[in-house]
From TrEMBL:
Subunit structure: Homotetramer.
InterPro entries, A to Z: AS_cat/multimer_dom_body, AS_multimer_C_tail
Main location per the UniProt record: cytoplasm
EC number: 6.3.4.5
Protein name (Swiss-Prot/TrEMBL): Argininosuccinate synthase
Native source organism of the sequence: Klebsiella pneumoniae
Length: 103
């Protein structure tokens, strides 16, 4: 039986095989259910074959950094046009720093 966040019991019609280790450490070896919404072979914390390589992860970080840069530039444009205030009370000190950086 699994407990939901609200505290009410929820029944799970799944069968799992666990490997118990020391303390609270365990591995889920097998899970069988008609209601699974994920592929168990993709979920692993062990070293081995992975869906993504290290190069994919670095590429993802690069894209995320570009997204952050684009967002900051957009906020800077809004601040310059007066649509966004750059006061420290709003929690956006980055916009004010970008204004000073461009001068």
């Amino acid at each position: 039986m699994i407990r939901c966040s609200a505290g009410s019991p929820a029944r799970s019609p799944a069968k799992s095989t666990l490997e118990l280790r020391r303390g609270n450490d365990y591995s889920i070896l097998n899970t069988v259910s008609d209601n699974l919404t994920y592929k168990a072979e993709r979920l692993t914390m062990e070293k081995g074959d992975s869906m993504f390589t290290a190069e994919d992860r670095i590429g993802q970080l690069t894209m995320r950094n570009l997204d952050i840069t684009d967002t900051r530039e957009k906020l800077f444009g809004y601040a310059q046009s007066g649509l966004l205030s750059a006061s420290s009370a709003t929690g956006l000190p980055q916009v004010e720093n970008l204004e000073n950086k461009g001068k």
